[in-house]
Amino acid sequence: MDIELGVQNVARPVTFSTEAGADEVGAAIDKAIAEGRPIDLTDDKGRRIIVPAAALGYAIIGSETKHAVGFGALDA
Q1: Among 4, 22, 63, 66, which is most exposed with the fewest C-beta within 10 angstroms?
Q2: Mind telling me which InterPro entries this protein's record contains (predicted)?
Q3: 13: helix, coil or strand?
Q4: What is the three-class DSSP state of 20?
């Protein structure tokens, strides 16, 4: 699952992948915002990403589908 968090007054978003599902990530973000505490997520490498909830500009919770990378046959 790819996640992108936009932080206010920061030019680049925080992007990472996680093993958590979309519902779990969305619930964690909603709960942190409601309680006024930092958003605390873990990426697929075990690193913790902590963003102040008050500074969150947007969150994009990506697709769980893994996309194939490579070259396909082209019909002429």
Answers
A1: 66
A2: DUF3107
A3: coil
A4: coil
